[in-house]
Write a structure and sequence with these properties.
Blueprint (H helix, E strand, L loop, with lengths): L13 H11 L12 E5 L11 H19 L3 E5 L1 E2 L3 H14 L5 H31 L10 E2 L3 H16 L3 E11 L4 E3 L4 E15 L2 E5 L10 E4 L14 E7 L2 E9 L11 E3 L6 H10 L25 H14 L3 E15 L7 E10 L6 E3 L2 E3 L1 H10 L4 E3 L3 H10 L4 E2 L1 E2 L9 E4 L2 E4 L9 E2 L3 E2 L1 H5 L2 H4 L8 H6 L2 E7 L3 H18 L10 E7 L2 E2 L17 H8 L1 H9 L8 E2 L2 H23 L16 H22 L3 H24 L5 H15 L4 H12 L21 H23 L18 H16 L5 H14 L10 H4 L2 H27 L1 H6 L2 H29 L1
Parallel strand pairs: 1-2, 3-4, 9-11, 17-25, 24-25, 26-27
Antiparallel strand pairs: 5-6, 5-14, 7-8, 7-13, 9-12, 10-11, 14-18, 15-16, 19-23, 20-21, 20-22
The chain binds one RNA strand through strand 8, strand 12, strand 13, helix 9 and strand 27.
Length: about 900
Amino acid sequence: MQELPKTFSPKDFEEALYKKWEESGSFAPDPDPSKKPYSIMMPPPNATGTLHLGHATMLAIEDIMARFKRMQGFATLYLPGTDHAAIATESVVIKKLQEEGMRNPKEELGREALLQKIRDFVENSKNTIRNQVRKMGTSCDWSRERYTFSDEMNHAVNELFTMMYTDRLIYRGDRIVNWDPKMQTTVADDELEYVEEKSAFYTFQYGPFQIGTSRPETKFGDKVVVMHPNDPRYAQYKHGEEIGPFEWINGPTMATVIKDEAIDMEFGTGVMTITPWHDTTDFEIAERHKLEKIQVIDEQGRLLPIAGEFAGMKIHEARPKIVEKLAAKGLLLSTDENYMHNVAVSYRGKGKVEPQIMKQWFVDVNKAVIDWKGKQLSIKEVLQDVVHSGMIKIVPDRFDKIYFHWIDNLRDWCISRQIWWGHRIPVWYKEGEVKVGETSPGEGWIQDEDTLDTWFSSQLWTFSTLGWPEKTPDLMRFTPSDVLETGYDILFFWVARMILGTTYALRKSGFPEEKSIPFKNVYLHGLIRDIRGKKMSKSHPETCIDPLDMIEKYGTDAIRLSLVIGGTPGNDMRLYEEKIAGFRNFVNKIWNGARFVLMNLDENTPQDLDPSIFSRADKWILTRLNEIIEKATTQLETYQFSEAGMTVYDFFWGEYCDWYVEMSKVNKNPAVLKHVLKDCLKLLHPFMPFVTEAIWELTEGAPNKMLMIAEWPKANLAWNFEEETEEVQRVMEVVSTLRSLRAESNVDATKKIHAIIYAHEDLGLLQAKAEIIKRLANLGELDLSETGEKVEKSLATFVGDIEIFLPLADLIDFDQERKRVEKEIQELEKYIEGIERKLSNPAFAQNAPKEILDKEKSKLEESKSKLEKNKSQLTTLTK
RNA sequence: GGGCGGUUAGCUCAGCUGGUUAGAGCGCCACAUUGACAUUGUGGAGGUCGGUGGUUCGAGUCCACUAUCGCCCACCA
């Protein structure tokens, strides 16, 4: 037997083991059609990114599920991929080119050359993230790796676009959109972030009204004044009434009175003017009343000719001058310099967003075109139905509400983007004619310049990766996927959109409803925060944790555990280095537990367990193992990853190592020792694949029987020894008591008294014995250092060879003991009375589920027998 | 304004449909240690589960109110 190092060094194993797994081909699903399929589609990280803790968490949880299911015998597909991340990638590359000295890369390079630059960049950096995903031990099928901007994906995107266009679900229209002047593109509602900003808030005299604004530069085109229909202050003004002329920025103007309930009477003066071209609310008011919409600011953020002398100026330049002019005219009533309000910025580019009306492509979310459960439903209605009907379950379920609320507020989805990096809109124009299709319809046709929102392609992720629109064997086998695991922060961005795109596309492709969903379950993990509860940020390097550094320092298994244990779905979790170090210690504990077992194995160790030679300790640990297997399996199946991990962790460290292995030093059964270790390795493998596989290799040796594809353990019902288990646990309690006494007392070593624990079936007396020993110690009559050892030995051999002496009457305060037992009896009687009352309640007896009823009954029985024991103990004590 | 979550040991967090004495890791204190493991072992200290009230035989768990921190959505003229 080779000498194994005392500490487990992850670096010596991880790379080689991963290579071995990957080369074995077992990351790919078993092609055997009789095997039940199980599939997880990895949310694709950005092709240009590096692995952060969000990815690491995602990969850890997904890999636990994949490995668990694979060991359970499912044909498990865990499909990896990367995302082209349209706007994020384009802005990164442009920024890089600018840093290299290019002033305006888009102008200087032109479309094709810039795209080539981005393509090269992506190709180059894709490998980084790929290797980092491997470093996490992720057991995904690299032979099926996909990319959201591959030719196949492009084909799927075009197909979907064409289908939706044909159904008139996609339309082109003038709508207000979020325009990012910095990136020169539209941004989706969900991609906006709001940052608080302090700016001046002005109140101007506008005809007979006072209006407030923080944006005077938009006010040129305002010819409408709006107030709430119920506002008594303005009851004298009639809806549609013309006011004016009166003096305004560039001379006299007229205004129309509009009454609309969107106005908040409490805010400011309760009156406002509207700028429909540059404000979403204003746009909606204008739509409702069919008002004229005038553009004031152009796409570069400059004022248009309507601004007169201010035309051509940038917003920040024009604003003070306009205020100055109005002040000179005496129309500025007040200025609040400390007005706090939220400014919309692009989630990606961080540029300030300027609402604009532009010609864009939209997806209609209200048009009923999907054939669903015998009705024609709209996208919105299908989105609601799949979650409402339970076809898709969200874990934790409180996110249902948030999801439904989002749908209620969902407006038509603007899918066109004015950037170059992305799926180009498959629409062609010629002399006012429009055609939709993947390739040019012929001579003279010009393709739409815009590209599609990145989420338009990623919504197809779960099924286009399997070959759609072709009906490939993979598509037929693995759709819908079993679970989508992701952070709750992209529930709207992506999860909801996937449901949207998938239900539509697959239903239209002839799939039945239950197969036309992207996934059956959604598991949402929380965000990882630093020790202070703040978002991890590179500006705080002292608390910011890089998963790759941690892998380097503590090993992948440790970081995986630290990201999973202590976390609950949908809740954020704090991470700090000490926690990772703690799990590194557990990894090492397993290594050393295994080392001990290996030292105790030899060629004579039988392969099979022989129940006829089971000691009580063997029976105990096997019974406990059964319980742990069942508990951990259930917890894994119900997405309680943290609990499942803790279950096995506690068992392995607290019971197997601390007690069973210790007992084995006195009296061992190597076959059982090995058996329990092997099952623990299996149970722990999904959480910590490397150390478990490394040990498996050492214990099993055979190169073809990897732990990764070993069969998930099952409880062996023939080995449930409840009585022995209870007994062992009682003795463990006594030993603990002894240990504590040994630590507490300073008994003179010369006074040696052998404590005696006599074999008696009665539980109450056994506990009383511990008490006796305690009192002996207090009287200085007992050398606990010796006694403790003896008891431990007795536990180990379980022969009950400890001697006893019995000056009971001298040592026990019978009165006090009697009082204690009497009190216990009283409590038990009260408890039993309670259960009986509950059971005799007809409402409870009729309505409660059978399991609950049985549970209550067994509790009742248990308490009754306990009561009996206490009563007999009481009579003993009374004698 | 609407919604959601957190509040449990010094710190970070578990605690599944209510059930005996509320748990873990880290930290702290004491002791141990030559053969699995100091990345260790044993023992200990430390909690009126944010507050008030209610339902119940029984509440960390359910209900109402409340305090406080955080998040999401909408609005911000």
